[in-house]
Amino acid sequence: MRSADPLIVGAGPAGCAAAIALARAGARPLLLDRSAEVGDPLCGGFMSWRTLAQLEGLGVRLADLGGHRVDQLRLFAKGREARVPLPQPALGLSRHALDSRMRETALATGARLEVDTIRTLAPGMAKGQRQDWQAESLFLATGKHDVRGQSRPRASAKPALGLRLRLPSEPTREALLDGAIELHLFDGGYVGIVLQEGGSANICMAVRKSALAASNGDPAALVERLGEDNPSLAARLGSDWRDARIESIGAVPYGHIARQTEAGIFRLGDQAAVIPSLAGEGMAIAVASGALAARHWLDGGAAAAPVFQREFASRASRPIRLASIGWRLVESHLGSRAALALAGIAPGIVRQFAEMARIPPPASLARR
Ligand SMILES: Cc1cc2nc3c(=O)[nH]c(=O)nc-3n(C[C@H](O)[C@H](O)[C@H](O)COP(=O)(O)OP(=O)(O)OC[C@H]3O[C@@H](n4cnc5c(N)ncnc54)[C@H](O)[C@@H]3O)c2cc1C
Whole-structure pTM over 0.90, yes or no? Predict the structure, then answer.
């Protein structure tokens, strides 16, 4: 099937943001996803104020989804704790709730959805498991998953992976976590915890492979060890964490930025830029890239892809650089102590840092 409207591969936040922006401008994009059902991707589930503002600009309603309001960042390391008010309120919301709402909004706005798993992608052609799809303009929004022909480089000397467990609502845990995003720092990673709709706790960590290897490569042994070393974390984990399934994703290419592309291929979301997850800005990057790509396509069609990619890379550079510095700092023994000390004596600096590690919104989504 050949399409004049863009073919968007991946109906996650980036693909859906592009679909909504295109459909609102009168185009009829086709979203392709490997799954008919919306899943619950591994993610910290922290939606920054910038993510929320952009989604509002796209007309994605979240108010009725029961997310948990977050006003404060709490840092924990080596038995110490520091509290920093966030520059603006954020939200804890499951990816299942967010992704479902974004898909619904895209379809209600005029986008179409087909189910297929794309195996290979080249200019003009996405080869799927079901069929081949031809389109002059392809938006690559497969997120964490690379597609043959378009893989991102993974040459990190210190590969990182993501782990996640979700714990049910429990009064003691809810009271401890109320209103906060918590980052529990340890050598080689961090554990991020936020409450989500219904009071469940999303516990997500980014960890260097070497730190996991120190626990024999066993995620449960790592969590057990972290709880023994950090009583505050143990209090949040309770005892029911042992009943929870620990999900994982490997080799996250933190710091990757796609600075160029071929005409006709717009790279969005994690395929465009991967910010270290402790910044909690990956979803804002996904939404911003989708909206900006839509704007460029509406103005210049398939030929505008390289210009879009350069502009987006330059917008994403500063937040990714700052988040990478922050991640390198807090994953080391001395760095995490220094971060806690700084947050204690000069919370304004940490707050400013948190603000600067945000993606500037495209003009179409900036608050008027
Ligand atoms: C450990 C960790 C914690 C994080 N925590 C946060 C956080 O708290 N806050 C935040 O803002 N960001 C966070 N992020 C980042 C965030 O999860 C991503 O940046 C975001 O999901 C990117 O959105 P996306 O639309 O690009 O990709 P995805 O969300 O990965 O969506 C991709 C879509 O493409 C589909 N797809 C994949 N392959 C194919 C294929 N071959 N064919 C067809 N369809 C396909 C998938 O089914 C999916 O629907 C975290 C990341 C990690 C690793």
Answer: yes
